[in-house]
Design goal:
Elements (H helix, E strand, L loop, with lengths): L5 H11 L2 H20 L4 H10 L8 H8 L17 H12 L5 H8 L10 H12 L6 H10 L5 H19 L6 H16 L1
């Protein structure tokens, strides 16, 4: 795949995202590239995926829902939370707008909000980069997560911390927790405890 059309992607994102979301996309791209380097993955591919991961984020919820209503891989309850619509819609939009045919990029975009069990390392770094980029995320949130990356099995430990924080936040706000989130948390906890 050709990742040289970065300027087209940036211009498209500037025209279709608000300023904060565009800055977040740049931060995610930079963080994804750093994580890819750390874990021996394709840095250019990670940068590109991080850059476009939120391409559908600023579309109206009714448009996002219309895009994803025929998806065959929606999680139970996913249609009930508009905050997650942009991930499956983003994978569809990336394929259409940027001619992406790389299944790993499309899957990483698709799962960057909820995640899934048995994510590839590439999917994990895009998921994490979205949560720990330093341009729009608060330091008190990202620093503890970044610190565990240096530990043995650090990638899974960092993911587990993200899920713990998410679950706590959902409980504190009296919001429903998707069954997939609990399943992923349990899977990560088991993985981390086995080491």
């Amino acid at each position: 795949m050709d990742y040289t059309n970065i300027e087209y992607c940036k211009n498209w994102l500037k025209a279709n995202l608000n300023e904060e979301r565009y800055i977040h996309s740049i931060g995610t791209a930079e963080c994804a590239k750093e994580l890819a380097k750390r874990y021996g993955l394709d840095e250019n591919k990670a940068y590109f995926c991080g850059l476009i991961h939120d391409c559908a984020k600023c579309l109206p919820n009714n448009e996002l829902k219309s895009i994803i209503c025929n998806c065959d891989n929606l999680c139970e309850g996913e249609l009930s939370n508009p905050k997650t619509y942009h991930a499956p819609a983003g994978a569809i939009l990336a394929k259409k707008e940027f001619n992406i045919d790389d299944d790993e990029i499309l899957s990483a975009i698709r799962w960057h909000t909820l995640g899934k069990t048995d994510m590839s390392d590439f999917e994990k770094i895009i998921f994490l980069a979205d949560k720990i980029e330093n341009k729009t995320r608060p330091a008190e949130w990202i620093e503890p997560i970044k610190a565990v990356l240096d530990e043995e099995n650090g990638l899974n430990k960092a993911l587990l911390m993200c899920y713990k924080n998410t679950i706590k936040s959902l409980v504190d706000r009296n919001l429903t927790i998707c069954f997939a989130t609990i399943e992923i948390y349990n899977s990560l906890l088991k993985n981390v405890k086995q080491i």
